[in-house]
Amino acid sequence: MALIGLISFLGIAVAVAVLIIVMSVMNGFRAELLGRILGFNGHVYVSGTAFRPDERGPMIARLKTLPGVVQVSPVIEAQVMALGLGQISGAVVRGTTLADLKSTRLVADNIVRGSMAGFGDGEFGGDVIIVGDKLAQSLGIQPGDPLTLISPTGGATAFGAPPQRKTYTVGGTFSVGMSEYDQTFIYMPLEQAQVFLGREDAIDFVEMKLANPDKATAIKPQVSAVVGSEGFVSDWTEKNASYWGALQVERNVMRLILMLVVAIAALNIISGLIMLVKNKGKDIAILRTMGASRGSIMRIFFMSGASIGILGTLAGLILGTLFCFYIDPIQQAVEWVTGAKVFSSDVYYLSRVPAKVDWIEVLGITGWSLVMAFVATLPPAWQASRLDPVEALRYE
């Protein structure tokens, strides 16, 4: 009986711990991705013909006055080919002003090599660019080296729009901890991007950043009222709708599966208590003949099974939360022992295993485990209370 009780205890503890760990890692993964994506990109986007060169300044000024808006940036973005020291790679050029680049704290605070000195200085913004660190490594370049960019289209000529080729100087490299950005993006002064990409005085879109990204959908009508019918307004939830939807579905399915695992682990209590009732049949009969009520017998066995569920749940709660709090040292220890990276940034976009403990969710997991333990305890406890003393003592 002690062995069966121990197995039930361990099953519940491990199941609860795994559920807490998995859900916390998924919460952390979503929070880290959301923070980096929204820190790197805008929250609300405005495209279309509303931002004509002569109206762009006043329009941007009006957008900045909307409640909750912290940054409004004109942006040019296009794909190019980057030629390094004997290496070639596809890249995305993002044209922006120095002030807007400095306001993008995720990039400005993560310049790992070189600096932003010289960015935007000179005729048409100058020739200094900021490159993603992984892209720079793959091209074999570092700050101060030349980098040749080839655009599919340049300025209009009598022969059409031929490819544009120009060599720039790498001023610095940034690493935001998300390989999709570190491997792809190049920042270029806005005026230089207009010249290099043949945009003349035009821009591709305006991106707005809010104090609270969750307000992006709510502010869209106000933005539409400012830009009028010539502007198309979208937000980050629309831009990444399929991606976030897939993450949410995966999270819900994983929660359901692991909750079923907790339920299965709690069902081990039934087998242990049924055997206990069989072994203690004589003792139950004696207690009944001494005046013990059916309710008291049921409470005894219910408390016996519930104690296993409570202790197992508490152990799983402690184990799971401690694992989440110390997940970085655990990751380092596993990588040191195995000699391999267990969380490659090239696959998972992030360079470390994230974990964010949601205490409301942990409370729900704890409650679910306790409920399942109590439910699993009821059938054998009820069976013990219905035991007939006469039948139990007939052959004693």
What does the largest sheet look like? Answer: 6 strands, mixed, barrel
Query: Radius of gyration, Cα only, in angstroms?
Result: 32 Å
Quick one: how many beta strands? Answer: 10
Tally of contiguous helical segments? 17
Would you identify the regions where 5 or more consecutive residues have pLDDT less than 50?
none
Shape: elongated
Give the class from helix and strand content and strand pairing.
alpha+beta
Order of helices and strands: HEHEEHHEEHEEHEHEHEHHHHHHHHH
- Order of strands, widest sheet: 2-3-8-5-7-6
C-alpha termini separation: 23 Å
- β-strand percent reads 15-25%
Summed up, the domain count is 2
**Mean pLDDT across all residues, rounded?**
82
In helices, the fraction of residues equals 55-70%
Structure write-up:
With 396 residues, the protein is of the alpha+beta class. The chain folds into two domains: 2-33 and 243-393, no CATH class; 69-210, no CATH class. Helix content is 55%, strand content 18%. The chain has helices at 2-40, 56-64, 98-103, 105-108, 133-139, 179-182, 190-196, 216-227, 236-239, 241-266, 268-279, 281-289, 294-325, 327-338, 345-348, 359-385, 389-393, and strands at residues 44-48, 69-83, 88-96, 111-114, 128-132, 146-151, 164-174, 185-189, 205-210, 231-235. A six-stranded mixed barrel has the order 2-3-8-5-7-6. A hairpin with a 4-residue loop joins strand 2 (69-83) and strand 3. Helix 1 packs antiparallel against helix 11, helix 1 (2-40) runs antiparallel to helix 16 and helix 13 packs antiparallel against helix 16. It is elongated, with a radius of gyration of 32 Å. The two termini are 23 Å apart.
